[in-house]
Write a structure and sequence with these properties.
The chain is an alpha+beta fold. It is 35% helix and 18% strand. The longest helix is centred in the N-terminal third of the chain and has 10 residues.
C-alpha cells in the first residue's frame, strides 16, 4: 500500500488500529524505489488516498502499469480515480 500523504496514513491507522498496516513501521519511500517494484514484476500498487469530496474520508484503489507510474510521480492526481476506488471510511 502507498499512502498519498501523512493525513491518509493517520486516518487509516485511526480507522483500523488493529490492522497489520497500523502496526507497521511506515517510512517515506522514494517514488523511484516503488517504481522499481513495478519494473521487477509487481502488477498492482494499492493507493490509500484522501477522499476529494469528504475531508475525513478515505479511498483505496489499485493501479497498474502506466497509471501506477504516473500516480507515483504525481503526473496524475489520485482523485481522478475516486469513482473506481473503494471507500474505506
Amino acid at each position: 500500500m502507498v499512502y498519498c500523504c501523512a493525513k491518509s496514513q493517520r486516518l487509516f491507522i485511526e480507522a483500523f488500529p488493529d490492522s497489520a498496516e497500523a502496526k507497521a513501521d511506515w517510512q517515506l519511500t522514494d517514488a523511484t524505489h516503488i517504481s522499481a517494484w513495478l519494473d521487477a514484476g509487481v502488477q498492482v500498487i494499492y493507493f490509500i488516498f484522501c477522499d476529494p469530496i469528504r475531508p475525513e474520508g478515505l479511498l483505496a484503489g489499485g493501479l497498474s502499469g502506466r497509471e501506477a507510474q504516473q500516480a507515483l510521480f504525481k503526473e496524475i492526481h489520485l482523485e481522478q480515480f475516486a469513482d473506481r476506488s473503494s471507500r474505506l471510511i
